[in-house]
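Pair request: fold both.
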Amino acid sequence: MQDRIHKLASKLRLNKVQVTIILAGVYIFLQMAADIAAAKVIVIGKIVMDAGIIYSLTFTWRDLIHKQLGRKAARTAIILAGIINVIMVLYFMFVVKLPAESSWADLGGQKAFEFIFGIVPRIVIASIIAEIVSELIDTEVYHRWTKGIGKNKPQWSRVVVSNSISIPIDSVIFPLIAFFGTLPFSVLIIMMLSNILTKAIITALSFWMIYLVPEKPIYVED
């Protein structure tokens, strides 16, 4: 499969800058979409968690960046996503304060906007802290595994090993910062366990993505 993907990518004649933009762009999108969606708390059966489910894919996508562009690029993508999300929060805070058109406000638009984007700053701050801590750890575990004991192991083991450490860390940090004081502690515990379970399931369903990016560069040198 990797040889076929490499041949297809080679036909596209993408240079390293283009590949970097694509991989980093998707990673940043996943982060931003998850941060905004996380403002909603959902219930599925007995599972209680935030709606930023798409965030689970960032761990595997980070592995793809690491695999194709290296550890430094993965670290840069993580930090850049954090900076962009901070800017997003500041902009939302500014927009909330702008005067609303009266008919739109009368329909409940302003209150709805304030309710959603008023909570987003805390959500994003929690997400940034959890993201930077967990994904930098993920980066180091991935790097040490591929350079050490896991060097000759199947590629899927990289995802499983790094995610098994970073996901629990992220799933504990985020709910504590985002919802502590607004939800009962018993609910926070359920959220933590639910997040770990959900992200583990998504990892199990998406680990194969690591095979989408060949070991050889998919870009051509200028």
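--- second member of the pair ---
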Amino acid sequence: MAERRQRQKQALREEILAAARDLFARQGYESVSMRKIAEKIEYSPTTIYLYFKDKEEIIEQVCQHTFVLLSQKLTEVLASETEPIARLKKGLRAYIEFGLHYPVHYRVALMLPVDKEHHHYQESEGRKSFEFLVCSVTACVEAGLFQETDVMAVSQVLWTAIHGVTSLLITQGEGFPWIERNRLIDMAIDNAVRGFLK
């Protein structure tokens, strides 16, 4: 009985997070209230407060979950690749594909304005996800493959490039005459990386 109650509590908690994620993505963080989240899952606001103290905790948990999923994906994809440039490109593509596979997750975690007061990057799952890129860039720099040796600068420039591709494909997916998607992604990654090669 205790185990079943725990499973039910966990299921409701996940339902709350899923509802909040969808509302945040469609309406924006500021427009969503605890009452709206409660209405979406047909519970009272009081029930939501039994699981989360406020809206800030909900969005933090939504984002943390997204970055855990992203880290799992990157771990799987990068495990079999050791050549530095190939590994870097493989990770960049995995990031884009993750965003396209989980567009609602991506919108909420990476396309909504950041609340600096409640956002703690250093302790976040987002930082762990970004470290995959930093490690791949570090390997390229240490192998003498890049002309620019500032690892953090290179990592941030590459991230802005692939985030741009990902966010545009999510928001303008059917509204713009894109070239074939895989070709677009490959060209974006190849050109972003080529700019740093010796």
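Observation on the second member. DSSP finds nine helices and no strands in the chain.
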